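protien #1 (seq + structre)
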Amino acid sequence: MILTFFTPGLDLRSIFLSFKTNHHPSGLTVSSHFEPCFSPWFRLPFMTEWLLIEEENPEFWRSQAKQTLQSVLDRELNTNVAKNILFFLGDGMGITTYTAARILKGQLQNQTGEETVMTMDTFPSVGLAKTYSVDFQIADSAATATAYLCGVKTNLNTIGVSAATRNGVCKSQKGNEVTSILKWAKDAGKSVGIVTTTRVQHATPAATYAHTASRKWYSDADMPAGAKKDGCTDISSQLLSNTDIDVIIGGGRKYMTPRGTKDPEYPRDYSSWGKRKDGRDLIKEWQSMKFGKVAHYVWNKTDFDAVDPETTDYLMALFEPGDLRFEADRDPNMDPSIVETTEKAIRILQKNPKGFFLLVEGGRIDQAHHAGRAYMALHEAVALDYAIAKGLELTKENETLTIVMADHSHPMTFNGYPFRGQSILGKSPLWAMDVLPYTTLMYGNGPGHKVANGTRPDIRNVNTKTKDYVQLAAVPTESATHSGEDVAVLARGPMAHLFQGVQEQNYIAHAMAYAACVGADQRHCQGKQTAAPVVHTTLTDDRNGAGAIHGSAVLLSSLLCVMLALTVGL
């Protein structure tokens, strides 16, 4: 096969594919005259670093593997009782998203990206979780959160209840409520908190404290009259009544105030005003409930920064009427980053000598995927990884069990044969049978399906690396759905080895509880009082950084390739 159509702006190697002699891994033929330009260390003008010439030497890979093997062999099991549980949840952060985010993080640091080591990559224990719900092969965030937080699988759209509850049927939830590990930790005397980039009433955080037949019952205004008559309550009111949560950080203030209450940040935006029909001001009620304690309610970064963790008992921070802004759109003068909110939460909670449980959710990864916006989803995942790094910095491995996982995945594909170091948000150098280019990342379904008269869009002159670009989708849907493959579970700290293998998603809650001696299973507590020091087992990769040694031969070879291309009239 000879490729004779080129994408403007691509590197020289995509042009060389028009010469027929040798075979590209994809099956395309290339010219032997340009073979040096396909060397693994050949870099192109759009790349900001040179690949290591050492990668051509087998000893480079053998030495690297030997070091990693020794690190694994030196690893010692940490069987301490976990004083703290730090739980990071990437909503919609399936393995494809995880991999693509790793590459993006490296490329944002002027690296090629593929060899980058994320903070979450360093966790020594890795497993997989099955995400299906009781009634659906592919689940939503409500059913999955109930599984990994409450230890019980349930039905789609329901939160904190068993599968005996029917979606949207209030009467069916009575007597079928199930509690979460956040409550088990609170009952054990630990401090507890939730941090999210969505509204605090959204599915993931709500599963820590609420019991509802519908994840959509954010306020009483969202509930049908029959449900209220049958005695069900909205999620926002349960945030106050069910569990005494020490730290609550996210968005969702419009569900907390009476209808018509103007928002302090957007007073002219009617959609941001209070929604409640019952006239309750839950923010004021929360403040009254904390009388005698040092409790702060804040809605902007200035007030948030002024909160002193050392003197604060309770914090409620609601930075938006609904969900927080995407990281790429966030105003750093108005809203703190997920790194900052994670740090504030930990510093408040860790004062408790009995420890803490903290859920930190990167919730808008999922929402960006639903919109078919890979740029936004990956930047949200990178931001979560930085929050994980901050969490590890502030805690001790011998006493803190840290978990990173996703609740479900999305139908985003990572495809084509992009060259090493090519932008993860760019286009494949190979074109399709319709003689049009396509992006490395695409969706199986979603709003990016734009076929007209049997032809898909020509994106040769489209910048696919912008935050507003919507990736192509194979099937037209208003919103991209979830996908049903297993998700990664990564663990570090006391009893991290419990999170290996392929497990049902509801197993996660029970394993965390066992490690921390909270909840019904107290076997791990017997004969163990304090955490003993353990060998630090974080795996590292010395290639993640700017420490590469770049030989003059690299520059010379690339210049020769450019000169050769000019010589033959390309």
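ok now protien #2
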Amino acid sequence: MGASLLSSAAMFRVLLLVLSSLWLFPELASAGITRHYEFNIKLQKVTRLCHTKSIVSVNGQFPGPRIIAREGDRVVVNVVNHVPNNVTIHWHGVRQLRSGWADGPAYVTQCPIQTGQTYVYNFTITGQRGTLFWHAHISWLRSTLYGPIIILPKKNVPYPFVKPYKEVPIIFGEWWNADPEAVITQALQNGGGPNVSDAYTINGLPGPLHNCSAQDTFKLKVKPGKTYLLRLINAALNDELFFSIANHTLTVVDVDAIYVKPFKTDTILITPGQTTNLLLKAKPHFPNATFLMAARPYATGRGTFDNSTVAGLLHYEPPSKSSPSASSFKNLPVFKPTLPPLNDTSFAANFTRKLRSLANSEFPANVPKKVDKRFFFTVGLGTNPCPQNQTCQGPSNSTKFSASVNNVSFVLPTTAILQAHFFQQSKGVYTTDFPTTPTFPFNYTGTPPNNTMVSNGTKVVVLPFNSSVELVLQDTSILGVESHPLHLHGFNFFVVGQGFGNFDSKKDPPKFNLVDPVERNTFGVPSGGWVAIRFLADNPGVWFMHCHMEVHISWGLKMAWIVKDGKLPNQKLPPPPSDLPQC
């Protein structure tokens, strides 16, 4: 009669074996799945502000498609470049544990994907849940190449807050009528500040406060009494943003894909590169009104900036047919939010200080208590000399704008640093003599020195595997104090301290928060102040750190860390994939 059925006893033994395996190895029960995505980089005609132009897009979408995964899932993205531009994609905030080949910054972890080429990004989401985003990481292509990464908890694992009725990504961006690539190319040639964008956008739409944009408005329709999870992403190139919804209170529950102690606020601040998850509790009854949600810049530097406001509309769903129809929403009164003044550094400081890790048994704050390596980096603007026989538009007609970390303006090499490191071919690519402290100390937030010139080079810091790092980032007054949102690739870090003026190595460390500091991947160095962070160098590879204002990256406010391999096999960076692009 063919194969006999297992006896009841045998079946019981198999079941017992499976259950005991899951008990001994619980990760088997929560192992993720593999999710495949196809990204075709192509030109697409888009019209905004009555201006039609061809933009670089993913799959013809603007903003680009969502990546949706659960914690523990593997994500495989096949990127095919059909445009004349060289392209790379960065998965902003993804830890990339032992998958540095997939991190994406051009000439740091990979050479660009050239026209007609394909590269597969392959990584696993580990220990993260919330909102991140992906974007191009070469020149200013991320002005149109960006999209959300939605990371859900593992199956059957609830949020540590009320379950939302609906989840809504809200992505801030910038729109240029001009070509942003031409904008930055011109600025780098003449040494001046680049032209600013023509509008901010919410999910690619400028909103009703701009000409020709009444139809290009993001609208969120809500039901009375329901709770919504708003997944905010600041994908703007050069501006920190205040955001508020008129007559509504927001509850912050997550930043940079890490849960925080919930707190209520009317307004949030979000820098380029940051994400924030908010709970919006709709009013219990139909309010007979429409509400604007709006964002405008927090600006601290001396340079020009896009001083416009982007708005979307919050509509309430009528409770019955007798209530206003969709067509009559325009007849309802519209309430506008009140946003802080453009340069409200006090609000910025107070808001960021409210952010704290959950720091409980389920979501601990594993702050390094012991420090192996201490660093002190100044960040700010400076100058480079104007080329001979050329007049420049920098701070003087003989200088160009520049930016630096510890007075080193980073120069991208012509081959990828990670490849050079892995194959031990660093000669002519990078040097390991990045200064751990400023070479010439001065009163960083006081009267600036007369010499504003920076040095230029491709210098890195080398860290032993698993070393604990404390880094103080100090803003400077050279060419004016300014907030700098610093982003660290490959790691989350804990913000253990911050303040205004010059960091005091004796008085400030005793005040550090080592209990429940916020854990992030991007944090604003305060204008005229400092921030102290700690992280564990447990991820072998080459990791970029830079200001997330694109103009400052272009001017050189960036550097790289090399984390050596550990001794065990699971502490080493694997070899590069066979399809890794070559320079």
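Confidence is low (pLDDT under 50) at residues 1-7, 14-29.
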